[in-house]
Amino acid sequence: DTGVSQNPRHKITKRGQNVTFRCDPISEHNRLYWYRQTLGQGPEFLTYFQNEAQLEKSRLLSDRFSAERPKGSFSTLEIQRTEQGDSAMYLCASSLSAAAGGTGYTFGSGTRLTVV
Amino acid sequence: DQQVKQNSPSLSVQEGRISILNCDYTNSMFDYFLWYKKYPAEGPTFLISISSIKDKNEDGRFTVFLNKSAKHLSLHIVPSQPGDSAVYFCAAKSGGGSNYKLTFGKGTLLTVNP
């Protein structure tokens, strides 16, 4: 297994356009997370899936954001009508059940979004 | 409201010396604490963790200390190596229904000089 894979690595888009990012988690991990990291900040929680069910969405995730995880495998994060404030690194992570202990997540390398 | 605070944006140490990275938290519901290391253009990588029922956890050159009464934890790296140069994030999670969610600090950039 090559870990958590995110595509694309970089995306530059014009304000108002829609963008979609993909995350392929570690195959046996049933939990998948999206985080956002802006400059000078730590990662901030956006949303969480257990298998195909989206169980929590942060208040940071406005109506322009939608995430899916069909069949409990890969996940997509779509941002509609992008704004300059959406510019950030979008990080995907996966894990087994949190009861597995404090080993935390495995993160992908992220997708850096720049809205111009 | 920053529930996890890393008040030192950067730290510079000499190779072979000890690096001490600090983290404070405000939420008493946090029951697990983790440290992640991040190199540029890569995602954070898990380093070490500690349960709130312990006050110390050690893994090779890395030791995390937890002082619950002070709501403070620290990461000690001994001896420091140039390859340790990275951003270090402190993170915490609470028990119960939100035990999957990590709250991160802003990070501390560690530079280990040869």
Brief digest:
Chain A has 116 residues and is mainly β. Chain A has strands at 5-7, 10-13, 19-24, 31-37, 44-50, 53-57, 65-68, 75-79, 88-95, 106-107, 111-115. Chain B is mainly β.
Report what the structure shows.
The complex is a heterodimer of chains A (116) and B (114). By secondary structure, chain A is mostly beta strands. In chain A, strands 2, 4, 5, 6, 9, 10 and 11 form a seven-stranded mixed beta sheet that branches. A four-stranded antiparallel beta sheet of chain A has the order 1-3-8-7, with no helix packed on it. Chain A is globular. Chain B is mainly beta and 114 residues long. The model of chain B has no long low-confidence stretch (mean pLDDT 94). At the A-B interface, strand 4, strand 5, strand 9 and strand 10 of A face strand 4, strand 5, strand 9 and strand 10 of B.
Descriptive terms for the model:
heterodimer; A: 116 residues; mainly beta; 7-stranded mixed beta sheet; 4-stranded antiparallel beta sheet; 48% strand; B: 114 residues; 6-stranded mixed beta sheet; 5-stranded antiparallel beta sheet; 55% strand
Low-confidence stretches of chain A: none
SSE pattern of chain B, N- to C-terminal: EEEEEEEEEEE
Q: Between the first and last Cα atoms of chain A, what is the distance in angstroms?
A: 36 Å
Question: What general outline of chain B do the C-alpha atoms trace?
Answer: globular
**Which structural class do the helices and strands of chain B define?**
mainly beta
* C-alpha Rg of chain B (nearest Å): 14 Å
What proportion strand of chain A?
Answer: over 45%
Number of strands of chain A: 11
The string of secondary-structure elements of chain A, in order, is EEEEEEEEEEE
Q: Detail the poorly predicted runs of chain B.
A: none
The percent range for strand residues of chain B is over 45%
Largest sheet of chain A: 7 strands, mixed
Number of helices of chain A: 0
Overall mean pLDDT score of chain B?
94
Measured between the Cα atoms of the first and last residue of chain B, the distance is 38 Å
Q: Can you count the beta strands of chain B?
A: 11
